[in-house]
Amino acid sequence: MCNAMLLETVAAVPGMVGGMLLRCKSLRRFEHSGGWIKALLEEAENERMHLMTFIDISQPKWYERALVFAVQGFFFNFYFLTYMVSPKLAHRITGTLKKRPSTLTPSSSRTWIMAASRMFRPRPSRSITGGCLPMPRSEM
Fold first, then answer.
1. Taken in order 14, 16, 20, 25, is the CA torsion positive or negative?
2. What DSSP state is assigned to residue 36?
């Protein structure tokens, strides 16, 4: 489960860095991005929601949260500098990250299924979406 959390933490970084750099470029050149900024930031938000789901399922301990914080801080700076030096290499890193979830081991898949089955037991719902979905209070 910790492996999946770290993977989702890192997976959000390329969209955020790409959106940030594209926004700066767009502002410098006084031109529109053609919707790319929004698309990249939505991808980063999607990965963030995956991370929030894993956190909700696994209930990580304080040291696992600290590890997520450290990995994200390191990878953000690494990816930003890599993108500034060689965008081609940064895109290769992103492609590798997107391919990685398909190589999860069967044991981690079993862990995910067991955690998901615990998650779907009847219990009071907790909103991790932060109000993204417009639902009446009575349905929550």
1. positive
2. H
